[in-house]
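User: Teach me something about this protein's shape.
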Amino acid sequence: MSGGERQVTDPDDPRLTPFLGLRDQATRKRREAPGGDMADVFIAEGDLVIERGLEAGLRLRAVLVDDARAKPLELPTDAEVLRAAPNVLDVVAGWPTLRDPIACFERPTLPDPTSLLQMAKRVAVLEGINNPNNLGVIMRNAAGLGLDAVLLDPTCGDPLYRRAIRASMGQVFAIPHARIDALPSALSTLHDAGFDTIALTPSADAQLHELELGPRRAILLGAEGPGLTDATISACGYAGRIDMARSVDSLNVGSAAAIAFHALR
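Assistant: First, the predicted structure itself:
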């Protein structure tokens, strides 16, 4: 394992500060939100996820590992590696052992959505998606099915939240994403850029596979349960529906996203 290694045996060691409170979702979100003491960083866990973060060019500050870990992990030479004793891990992770390394990365500056749209042909626009697992799966699907960007309205969660990153298998680093203003007003930016906008909805009068669309396409997805707001659906140029069998009315939003993204191709 490369990098500057340090033994940590004191749970109050200040070098552990970025890794504290991982089990408290509300606290972590406050710390990592704008204005919080960790607004400039984010936490990611797992060998593959850390590797993909490094491949994406993200700057790694520190990695927390179990002191008993023998498996090598190639890191930049300036990355600090904290090898934690069992009593330290018990405080940080709630268990005296740690299966996967936990990394602290510097948070990148998000691009301007207008600049993303200039180079994009297929994008996803998310409204109110806060579940980190769903958000991570959507980001993974967007990367895997060839979308150019994902735009998130202010009511969406953080794609760089630890659980969202893990659900995306680190693919959140591979798909450009940006924040937009509240929907539906933000749709004017897409319409001005020449995008056809398709609201994904279970409405019986909507359909997805026979739409006559131009080359620039944006699919809109809402939160699990409530879906897109009526105002946003009304402001879109089209309404798209995934045909369902039997008495099933809809799919998990991550599954629906995969089908819709594939249909955009």
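Now, about its shape. The chain has nine helices and eleven strands. The longest strand covers residues 60-66. If you'd like, I can walk through any region in more detail.
User: That's plenty for now, thanks!
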